[in-house]
Amino acid sequence: MQPDYTLGRLTRRRRDGSTYWSFCIVWRDSDGRRRRCSLGTTDKVTADALARQVWASLSAERPLDTVGDIVEAYLDSLNGERQERRKREAWAAAKPYWGRLKPATIDEAVSLAYPAWRKRAANTIRQELSLVRTALNWAAAGKRLDDVPKITLPPMQETSVGHLSKDEFRRLLDGCERPHVKLFAMLGVTTGGRKSALLQAKWDQVDFQRGLFNLNPEGRKQNSKHRATVPLNDLILNALREAKQAALTDYVIEHNGKPLLDIKKGFAAAAKRANLKAHPHMLRHSAAVWMAEDRVPMAEIASFLGHRDISVTARVYARFNPDYLRGAAESLCW
User: Fold this and answer.
1) Structure confidence at residue 234 (pLDDT)
2) pLDDT of residue 330
3) Which parts of the sequence belong to the Tyr recombinase domain (predicted)?
């Protein structure tokens, strides 16, 4: 997280005409004026520590005149919690619209006009408006805002799930003339991995002895696109063993002795030969739908896909499980 201040040097003159300096923190106030505050030390390590303390004190005291002031103070209060990076990304998109607005000027029409200004999917809009609403509620809870304006979120859209049936998938495999495209398609439905995870995967992520595929390579920090470690069935294990014997690189998916940055063209060509409208991400959806149709519990599907929130899994895929809520329905007899 980048602080809203920088370290500088503050030079002052003594009565005898000599000068001395110390580190200071430098920032701009809500009016854009440059401000400085001496830290009273010439030691860089000490200055860094003092700067954090002084800035925390100034942040707690600085007035929250605008929505931008409130949201940024709220984000500073998170202190590196898991969702902070994602919230800051949402705020970077929302700030041009909300940053200079004063809470007292916000009515329902302001938030209702935001989707037309932002021109993004409803789920993205909801995430960004939820951040603004959360920050306003945080300020009110801390008695730094008297009245919380109403922030109206657009309704949750019904999620469409583009996926392939098993018959369609077999047609797709028949249309895969290149071995690397066929292996990618098979991995897509047997691991539920995203395109980027599969194209970046190396052979050291495949545990042939235990039949496991760690989709998160060593050194990659998990983020909102969580990558799971998934078991491999015999069908894909056999395909991987054959591919490993012919491998020329460290990458699971390779072509002409090189890793691939994208597989969009090869996949599109295979789909065209199979007379299908399909794209690579449909393999992940297909994996989830097939599991749901086979009555796999939502919690297991969520773990397989790397979902941290099972409600997301249930909202998208529960409709494909013929037994989902069946027990609840059976209790409604008289």
Assistant:
1) 96
2) 85
3) 159-330
In a domain, 93, yes or no: yes
Q: At what angle do helices 108-118 and 122-141 cross, to 10 degrees?
A: 140
- Residue 194 makes CB contacts below 8 A (sequence gap 6+) with 225, 227, 281, 284
Mean pLDDT by 10 residues, the chain (334 residues): 76 84 83 81 90 76 82 80 80 94 91 91 89 92 86 77 94 96 97 96 96 94 88 96 96 95 95 95 96 95 92 90 86 85
Q: What is the pTM of this model?
A: 0.63
Q: What is the pLDDT of residue 62?
A: 65
Cα gap 196→261, rounded to integer Å: 8
Number of domains in the chain: 3
- Contact call for residues 152 and 247 (beta carbons, < 8 A): no
| CA quadruple 270, 272, 274, 280: dihedral, nearest 10 | 50
Q: Tens of pLDDT along 176-200?
A: 999 999 999 999 999 999 999 999 9
**Which residue segment(s) compose the domain that 265 sits in?**
166-326
Q: What is the pLDDT of residue 222?
A: 85
Q: How many CA atoms lie within 13 A of 76 on its CB side?
A: 20
Query: 202 with 317, same domain?
Result: yes
Q: Are residues 184 and 318 in the same domain?
A: yes
Question: In this structure, are 242 and 294 located in the same domain?
Answer: yes
Task: State the DSSP H helix or E strand holding residue 44, giving kind and residue range, or none if neither.
Answer: helix 44-61
| In contact, 188 and 172? CB cutoff 8 Å | no
Task: Report how far residue 29's alpha carbon sits from residue 107's, in angstroms, rounded to the nearest whole number.
Answer: 26
Which positions ≥6 away from 180 have C-beta within 8 Å?
A: 253, 254, 255, 260, 263, 266
- Is residue 297 packed enough to be buried (19+ CB in 10 Å), middle (13-18) or exposed (0-12)? middle
DSSP state of 4: S
Distance CA 47, CA 67 (A): 30
CA angle, corner 304, sides to 271 and 206, nearest 5?
A: 80
Type of residue at 277: K
